């Protein structure tokens, strides 16, 4: 890809750069299980949906990464308690710390990858997020590796609407055929990016749902480290 027409890479954040291809519902559920939270997967799944629907209204641009995680987990617990789950609010802190640690453990490799790509290409971050993505990128010391950050809550366009990618392309002053999109969601990242003419790299990991179709993905990787091969 280095010798071709690609001039820019557009990266997803949540589930891609922060947690290496794992959907956040999977990350939360794995931590719930490891800590013995006494709820079923279906109960958790409904709590996750409830929290995601409300997090956008609560989280503001000043929220840190830890505050963001804590807010989402607190919302999950609010739902579970309203539905008679026998859970302890003190567990929120334990879950938050585990999830935060998992991101911090992963981010050094992400930073290495981003630094290399930003040395050779224009790079952008294109993400469905809560309004505080720039704050979090600064906190993780990865903001310097992006020439543009396009966040759904800021532009009021949400994936899978392909216009969010078009905004990033306009900011980078490149055509769709000159960009490659990297994301963990086949439905929200890969399909819309392919539709407008971008190359696509699907970070296929532990997903919200089983995805067997892959025709919109030009390349499939299973770990962020595999992006190195696109620079060789």
List key phrases describing it:
6 strands, alpha/beta, 232 residues, six-stranded parallel sheet, 12% strand, single chain
Summarize the structure in words:
This protein is α/β, with parallel strands linked by helices and 232 residues long. It is built from nine helices and six strands, in the order βαααααβαβααβαββ. Strands 3-2-1-4-5-6 form a six-stranded parallel beta sheet, sandwiched between helices. The radius of gyration is 18 Å and the shape is globular.
- CA gyration radius, whole angstroms: 18 Å
Major sheet attributes: 6 strands, parallel
Assembly annotation: single chain
Low-confidence stretches: none
| Spatial strand sequence of the major β-sheet | 3-2-1-4-5-6
Shape: globular
Distance between the termini: 8 Å
Concise description?
The protein has 232 residues and is an alpha/beta fold. The protein has nine helices and six strands. The mean pLDDT is 95.
Which helices and strands occur, and which strands form pairs?
Elements: E1 8-11, H1 13-17, H2 24-34, H3 41-58, H4 65-82, H5 90-120, E2 122-127, H6 133-139, E3 148-151, H7 152-155, H8 163-172, E4 179-183, H9 186-195, E5 199-203, E6 219-221
Parallel strand pairs: 1-2, 1-4, 2-3, 4-5, 5-6
Helix pairs in contact: 3-4, 4-5
């Amino acid at each position: 890809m280095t010798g071709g027409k690609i001039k820019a890479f557009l990266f997803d954040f949540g589930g891609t750069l922060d947690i290496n291809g794992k959907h956040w519902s999977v990350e939360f559920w794995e931590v719930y299980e490891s800590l013995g939270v006494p709820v079923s997967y279906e109960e958790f799944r409904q709590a996750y949906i409830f929290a995601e629907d409300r997090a956008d209204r609560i989280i503001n641009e000043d929220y840190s990464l830890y505050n963001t995680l804590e807010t989402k987990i607190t919302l999950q617990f609010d739902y579970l308690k309203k539905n008679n789950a026998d859970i302890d609010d003190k567990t929120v802190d334990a879950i938050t710390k585990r999830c935060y640690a998992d991101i911090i453990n992963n981010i050094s490799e992400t930073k290495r990858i981003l630094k290399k790509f930003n040395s050779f290409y224009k790079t952008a971050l294109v993400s469905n997020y809560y309004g505080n993505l720039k704050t979090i990128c600064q906190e993780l010391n990865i903001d310097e590796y992006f020439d543009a950050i396009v966040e759904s809550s800021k532009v009021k366009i949400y994936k899978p609407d392909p216009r969010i990618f078009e905004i990033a392309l306009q900011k980078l002053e490149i055509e769709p055929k000159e960009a490659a999109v990297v994301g963990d969601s086949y439905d929200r990242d890969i399909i819309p990016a392919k539709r407008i003419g971008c190359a696509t790299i699907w970070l296929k990991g532990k997903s919200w749902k089983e995805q067997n179709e892959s025709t919109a993905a030009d390349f499939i990787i299973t770990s962020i480290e595999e992006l190195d091969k696109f620079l060789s």
